Amino acid sequence: MRVLAGDIGGTKTAVAIAEVGPRSLSFERTRRYPSTAWAGLAEILENFLADVRQRPRTAAFGVAGPVLDGRAKVTKLPWLLDERALSARLRIGRVRLINDFVAAALAVPRLSTRRTALIVPGRGEPGGPIGVIGAGTGLGQAVLVPSGRDWIGVASEGGHADFGPRDDREDGLVRFVRERFGRVDRDRLLSGEGLGHIYDFVKSQRGRRDAPVVARAFAQEDRAAAISRFALSGRDRLCREALEIFVSIYGSEAGNLAIQYRATGGVFLAGGIALKILPALRDGLFQTSFRSKPPLEGLLARIPVRVVLDPDVGLVGAAVAAYRTVIDTTR
């Protein structure tokens, strides 16, 4: 079945036409757009479909934000999306909006182990719930639960839940960030923006200034990318300490997700940041934070955690959702 799929984020929007079957999925064409350069999703889709002679019969889009009654507001964009309006404008019979991390979750059963990297060992329970979490522009979460021979993706806005500090250092981090923004949610720290806040906190605690080479990098590129690069190379102590705090918080939040949903089938890290800091996620700090939750260490010790290596995971999940939209309505 030929479908239109999209992964709609605050930074970029990826769109694809895919051929999907019960166990197969391949992309016919794919294109990525800078989200903020466009007035809305409809304009992007019209550009993408301009030279497509035969439009797909169904479409699904993973959206970075909550979806209610077929409508969605992209969390970090001024875009309002509506399934019926998109269907009419694009002349596509069925259009479905889903949370972007539900899309990522729906892709997990179609991922081979070669498209993931194990960072916390364990033995996943066959058919057990699967948790998906990912730091990027924001913090996304979802869970996949078994339903007969298939899976159901359950959306979550857990990234906007209050952040709970675990020690004195994190108490200080919360006070530091609260002075800037008021309420401190998990998204405020576990995101690209959040890594920058953590770095600023470490700098204030150490009474230090940016190293000249780091300051030049900040002026020329994304701060989170620069912090990660200097941390992983070991070239800057402040960046290294900031990334260590970030990884520790990330591991703890992944453990919270595993507990909340009893994700015995495993936890998967999606989102752009995990790929970029994979060496740091493998060094043991993430695993320690993930499992250090008495009295549930025994449960967490059995749950594996993998990083999704496929950058198109959101598109894969959206294509699966589009396919299932048709299958479910014809049964």
Characterize the structure shown:
There is one protein chain. The protein is of the alpha/beta class. It has 2 domains: 2-107 and 312-330, ATPase, nucleotide binding domain (Nucleotidyltransferase, domain 5); 113-308, Hexokinase, domain 1, CATH 3.40.367.20. 43% of the residues lie in helices and 25% in strands. The strands form 3 sheets. It has a 6-stranded mixed β-sheet with strand order 9-14-13-10-11-12, with helices on both faces. A 5-stranded mixed β-sheet has the order 3-2-1-4-8, with helices on both faces. It has a 3-stranded antiparallel β-sheet with strand order 5-6-7. A hairpin with a 6-residue loop joins strand 6 (71-73) and strand 7. It starts with a strand and ends with a helix. The model has no long low-confidence stretch (mean pLDDT 93).
